[in-house]
Design a protein that fits this description.
Blueprint: E1 14-23, E2 26-36, E3 41-45, H1 52-60, E4 67-72, E5 75-76, H2 82-87, E6 88-91, H3 103-113, H4 118-131, H5 147-159, E7 165-169, H6 177-189, E8 195-200, H7 203-209, E9 212-217, E10 220-226, H8 232-243
Parallel strand pairs: 3-8, 3-9, 6-7, 7-8
Antiparallel strand pairs: 1-2, 1-4, 4-5, 9-10
Helix pairs in contact: 3-4, 4-5
Bound molecules: adenosine-5'-triphosphate.
Adenosine-5'-triphosphate (ATP) binds at residues 23-24, 28, 46, 48-54, 201.
């Protein structure tokens, strides 16, 4: 079953309609409908292989859907792929970092690649170093940084061109608990100026850091809900039932 989405406001920033993708002869994402509003952090939750990365890659414009559409501010991404570059900041599952560059060199390189002129690039790099708390490591080689700092560099590169939509594939993956908490704070701080869509297979991470959770299983969106404090136990039961393919009771989708 695919969950219709009726929470986002009348003009969502991101609108997925019947989004599907076949890979190696198998439909790994099927008929996903989802909307995301400005100022919202939505967590796409699912077990390994559920289709999270494939969905995010389609939203980021690096993988074309087999059918369905991705609309950003009403414009179809695949009618005009340059929309993706301008309006989306994307942290892939494996961030394309250059270990031999310093943090500042790498961010400047990314800013120039996005088409920012010299002075704009300088301003954007300084802004994101500050926002992502990278000041202490700006002259360090990326290859020598901890995983937590490397993920922050990955987020900083996604923000350089000030896109309205930020797409983060497993931003907390491999982080220790302190780094994970700092990452959550950083993601939540992005809500002031961006909509954020992130994937995770960690339920606690999704619950603590997101306004809304959508559960993906076997390529289908099974449930979307607003996160309420103190609902961990209910959420765990729901997730377990979905992961074991047990039929769900009727419940309004959030
Ligand atoms: N290039 C590909 N060719 C064939 N099958 C693929 C390809 N990429 C992904 N798949 C398959 O598609 C399904 C969904 O993969 P995807 O990476 O989107 O899942 P995921 O939810 O992100 O998983 P994980 O949490 O492990 O990253 C999996 O069964 C995967 O094996």
């Amino acid at each position: 079953m695919t969950a219709p989405d009726d929470i986002a406001d009348a003009a969502p920033l991101l609108q997925l309609t019947d989004l599907s993708r076949r890979l190696a002869g198998r439909e790994v994402v099927r008929g996903v409908n989802l909307a995301l509003a400005r100022g919202e952090v939505l967590g796409l939750l699912g077990v390994n292989g559920a289709g999270k990365s494939t969905t995010l890659r389609m939203i980021a414009g690096v993988l074309a859907p087999t059918s369905g559409s991705v609309r950003i501010d009403g414009d179809d991404l695949y009618d005009d792929p340059s929309i993706a570059r301008r309006r989306i900041g994307y942290l892939p599952e494996r961030a394309p970092l250059h270990p031999e560059l310093t943090v500042a060199e790498y961010l400047r390189f990314c800013a120039r690649l996005r088409g920012l002129a010299n002075a704009e690039a300088t301003t954007a790099v300084a802004r994101e170093i500050e926002r992502c708390d990278l000041g202490d490591v700006r002259r360090r080689l990326i290859g020598q940084l901890s995983k937590g700092y490397q993920q922050r560099v990955g987020i900083a590169q996604a923000l350089l061109h000030a896109p309205p939509l930020i797409v983060l594939d497993e931003p907390a993956s491999g982080l220790d608990p302190v780094q994970a908490i700092r990452m959550r704070e950083l993601v939540r701080s992005l809500r002031a100026n961006h909509a954020v869509l992130l994937s995770t297979h960690l339920l606690a991470e999704a619950e603590a850091g997101c306004d809304r959770i959508a559960i993906l299983h076997r390529g289908e969106l099974r449930h979307a809900m607003i996160v309420q404090p103190g609902e961990t136990a209910r959420l765990e039961q729901l997730f377990l039932r979905i992961a074991s393919d047990v039929a769900l009771p009727a419940e309004p989708h959030a």
